[in-house]
Design goal:
The protein is an alpha/beta fold and about 425 residues long. The protein has a domain of about 70 residues. An eight-stranded mixed sheet has the order 6-7-8-3-9-10-12-11, sandwiched between helices. About 30% of the residues are buried.
Length: about 425
């Protein structure tokens, strides 16, 4: 990637939390994805990788935090604002109670304490009003981001066609054709959702495809939902995408059960790229495939990335694959992001003990080296003491973030020689 594109943030995740009842599947996760890059998200099963991906594409309504795509907030949760409001009410109530008790003991301080009570109450009202406004904005952005995007597209279409229609006013035939095209483009723009610029490849190539639909119907479904009715255009587009992902036209009329696992995953990829997305979320797209097929799918994604100018969030638990495919890597553990760094930097200088544990688990192709390989076992209770010194995400070197406390930060800096 060139330096200019590296600076362009396509997706921004801020303090994302996704709770299912008492379970914190994702807990206060933040990261950016730059346009044109592949961002790898790794961790063991159940660490929150897939939940993060599904939250971004709005399969789940997020609990708290914000997600921005192309500078526009598409997801917003309100729990953090509600919890902050509850905390403010509780603290104010406790402070007022203490001041009234002080007044009862010292009647001479009544005027001063009454003034303090009024100030505390006014401060609480101000903070509650601010949080209420934040909640209102969050709910609006979460619910109406697609509608606002469609309005913007409609305005762009009108701006594009106004001079064209004026220019064609003297030619009735050309004007009629132009008006027809204008009406069609307006309809498509009005139905377009910003979220369709993000597409997802699911982990299971069998469960993610409807067994009652043909390959052509599966791949073209997004186009139909978006209001495209030209059957010839849809047919040609399906053929084009099939050939792009390594399948043939004859496959269009078949059903998913007639294909192998690798071919089904190619169909899933075709379904996602036909919508011309800018961001592709690949949720462990190779974990259910044979090793020989895995390489083919990874190479296909690499090729599509270049040809279609895609940005990819690549979710996996195999660090060796992620290293080959990703520009930057984020490591998750129990819903938390514990380390984030450029791919080469992470492998050269892993700092968090969990990252080191994952790297030590990568098998080596040489049997002699594999026999000598030392596996690191990570136990969070033994590795950290966060009882007093609380951890946070900290940037130790440019672009290299680690979840640590003050003592650990000093230790890591010493290891890096900084």
């Amino acid at each position: 990637m060139d330096s200019k594109r590296e600076q362009e943030v396509l997706l921004k995740v801020e303090h994302l939390s996704q709770h299912f009842g008492p379970v914190k599947a994702v807990d206060d996760v933040s990261f950016d994805i730059m346009k044109g890059e592949v961002f790898g998200l790794v961790g063991e099963s159940g660490c929150g990788k897939t939940t993060t991906g599904r939250s971004i594409i709005k399969i789940y309504d997020i609990t708290s935090g914000s997600i921005y795509f192309k500078g526009q907030r598409i997801c917003a949760g309100v729990r953090s604002y509600k919890e902050e409001s509850a905390r403010v009410r509780k603290d104010t109530k406790a402070a007022v109670k203490a001041l009234r008790e002080d007044t009862a003991k010292n009647p001479g301080k009544k005027a001063e304490n009454d003034r303090k009570i009024a100030e505390k109450t006014e401060e609480m009202k101000k903070l509650l009003a601010e949080n209420g406004e934040q909640i209102r904005r969050a709910r609006f952005d979460h619910k109406y981001s697609d509608r606002e995007y469609a309005k913007k597209l409609v305005q762009e279409v009108r701006k594009k066609y106004e001079p064209l229609l004026k220019e064609a006013s003297g030619d009735s035939r050309k004007l009629a054709e132009l008006k027809k095209q204008y009406k069609s483009d307006l309809k498509i723009a009005g139905k377009t959702k910003l979220i369709t610029k993000i597409q997802m490849i699911f982990q299971d190539p069998i469960a993610s495809l409807d067994p009652r639909m043909t390959v052509s119907e599966i791949i073209s479904e997004g186009l139909v939902i978006n209001g495209i009715k030209d059957k010839k255009y849809i047919e040609e587009r399906v053929y084009e995408i099939l050939e792009l992902v390594g399948l043939v036209r004859e496959h269009a009329g078949r059903y998913p059960h007639e294909f192998s696992g690798g071919q089904r995953q190619r169909i899933g990829i075709a379904r996602s790229v036909i919508m011309s997305p800018e961001l592709l979320i690949a949720d462990e797209p190779i974990s259910a495939l044979d090793v020989s097929i895995q390489a083919q799918v990874i190479n296909l994604l690499n090729e599509l990335r270049t040809r279609l100018d895609l940005t990819i969030l690549f979710i996996a638990h195999d660090l060796s694959v992620v290293k080959y495919f990703s520009d930057r890597i984020g490591v998750m553990y129990y819903g938390k992001m514990v380390e984030l760094a450029p791919s080469d930097e992470l492998f050269a200088h892993p700092l968090h003990p969990y990252t080191r544990s994952l790297l030590s688990a990568i098998p080596l192709p040489d049997p002699h080296l594999e026999k000598k390989r030392t596996r690191i076992v990570y136990n969070s209770l033994e590795s950290h003491d966060y009882s007093v010194d609380k951890p946070s995400m900290r940037e130790l070197t440019p672009g290299h973030f680690v979840y640590c406390n003050d003592a650990e930060e000093q230790k890591y800096r010493k290891e890096l020689g900084i």
